[in-house]
Amino acid sequence: MNFFSSPGIKHLTSLDMSECTGCDDICVSQLSQSCGKTLKHLSLCWCWHITDRGATSVVDHCSNLLHLDLTGIDKINGDCFGRVPTEMPHLRLLDLKQCNRIKDELIEDVVRQKRNLTVINYYGETVMFEQS
């Protein structure tokens, strides 16, 4: 059964699934397809079964997100984040603390392309666009 197929879920604007042991790529795909258009805030911190497949589903379907927190998801490389500037125009904060596979160069490139985005890197440091 898909919990995210319930009629009222389509209007959900904020969801915190942090430390949900049952949250995996299938769960993230279902939630992003069901309520991705209305979600503004999504937290998937320490959901250890999420991979790049789940992250890609969020980027593809959650275009109205303002805040995405992926703290502690150590199975994502973040290749889909290169599409954030075009696919997620409203995103203002991307939290990637303790995401050890995401390269700093990728984060810096995304911030260069999307200047109003703040990214929190592996170490908890803020990465923002700074004009030279």
Describe the structure.
This protein has one domain: Leucine-rich repeat, LRR (right-handed beta-alpha superhelix) (Alpha-Beta Horseshoe). By secondary structure, the protein is of the alpha/beta class.
- Decide which structural class fits the backbone: alpha/beta
The CATH top-level class label:
Alpha Beta
Name the average pLDDT: 94
Shape: globular
CATH fold-level name: Leucine-rich repeat, LRR (right-handed beta-alpha superhelix)
Number of helices: 4
Order of helices and strands: EHEHEHEHEE
| Oligomer classification | single chain
The largest sheet, given as strand count, sense and whether it forms a barrel, is:
6 strands, mixed
Provide the low-confidence segments as ranges.
none
CATH-assigned homologous superfamily: Ribonuclease Inhibitor
The total of beta strands comes to 6
Q: How much is the radius of gyration in Å? A: 14 Å
Number of domains: 1
Order of strands, widest sheet = 1-2-3-4-5-6
Strand content: 5-15%
List the helices and strands and how they pair.
Elements: E1 14-16, H1 25-35, E2 41-43, H2 52-61, E3 67-69, H3 84-87, E4 93-95, H4 104-113, E5 118-120, E6 126-127
Parallel strand pairs: 1-2, 2-3, 3-4, 4-5
Antiparallel strand pairs: 5-6
Helix pairs in contact: 1-2
Protein name: F-box and leucine-rich repeat protein 2/20
Organism: Mytilus galloprovincialis (Mediterranean mussel)
InterPro entries: Leu-rich_rpt (IPR001611), Leu-rich_rpt_Cys-con_subtyp (IPR006553), LRR_dom_sf (IPR032675)
